[in-house]
Amino acid sequence: MVRYGIIGLGMMGHEHLRNIALLDGAVIGALSDPNADMRDSALALTNTLFGSQPPCFEDHRELIASGLCDVFVVVSPNHTHHAIMADLMICGLPVLCEKPIGISQDECADMLDWQKESGTTVWVAMEYRYMPPVQRLLDDVNGGRIGKIVQVSIREHRFPFLEKVGAWNRFNANTGGTLVEKCCHFFDLMRLITQSNPVRLFASGGVDVNHLDERYGSQTPDIVDNAFVIVDFENGTRAMLDLCMFDEASNWQEIVSASGPMGTISACIPGPSRFSVDGKERTAEIHFSDRATKTETHELIEVDHAILAAGDHHGSTFYQHQRFQKMVMEGGEPEVSLRDGAIAVIVGAAAEESIQTGVAIDLRHRIRELSDPHK
Hints:
Blueprint lengths: L1 E6 L3 H10 L5 E7 L3 H15 L5 E2 L2 H7 L4 E4 L6 H8 L6 E4 L6 H14 L3 E4 L6 H11 L8 E7 L14 H4 L2 H4 L2 H11 L3 E9 L19 E8 L4 E7 L9 E7 L2 E7 L14 E7 L4 E7 L3 H4 L7 H15 L7 H20 L3 E2 L1 H5 L7
Parallel strand pairs: 1-2, 1-4, 2-3, 4-5, 5-6, 7-10
Antiparallel strand pairs: 7-11, 8-9, 8-15, 9-10, 11-12, 12-13, 13-14
């Protein structure tokens, strides 16, 4: 049995608990969160899922010191990852850390330094890689169905950010900005699909619709709610992100497309069922536009309903946990490395900078500095 220690028991922490419960050979060794309500809610859920309640700590350092865990899952707010990872990476046990791994390049560089010293295995939780329709798109692209990739397009039109404890997700200082917090997923997918590193980007975005009337003491939310980001890659491909955080009625929450000389393949992914009009799950689709025949075909991508019901990410959290557990039990390297997670943060932070400055950002030296962060 693999004993999991869950650090952070908010909405996403609950999703991890539900998905770990679907694994064979997995138990919850311990839980931690500084918020008493979150601890109580997670304990009740753990009792329902596993038939028992594990020790639950206020401080993650107590969880680490307990010796009750074989692996750790970090699901705390973004701005706490740096301090928590500093404590975890001296333990030498595998860590699955939610995205973004940090909120700045400096934080990511620190973690890479700590990993060099400790050798700790860190898997960055980029769930979107493991959505079944995205996995199918990757298989088709890598199999040559569209020929050499020329363009990648990712469109996310969705609901606004949800309420979190202390409203931490309303402020760039806590999240790194929307294009780090939310969109590091998409910059990671762009690298995965193109099999290349980004070299420059230009972004335009704003705070135009969401959270405008919210006040937290003297603070007003400053996270962007819409943006376009264009990214050029080393191998000549280019990609674009189209983000709108006030389009709950969109038929597809995400559309991930890759185009080449033979056609275009798109993974069309619905949003979580609890936000749909009828509260029901909808089936993802793969669309293929064949340039030779000038036809478009649609194929349904079915996912087990028990897996869909365990989270808001179209089954991906479960499939990610399956592969993480396999690595823990059999050995091997993380599929999403700490460096992968760091590059996604660098791209997101550069996109936020581009919005603020109105200029294109060269990414090459920033990525090179990951190998020698203090040069």
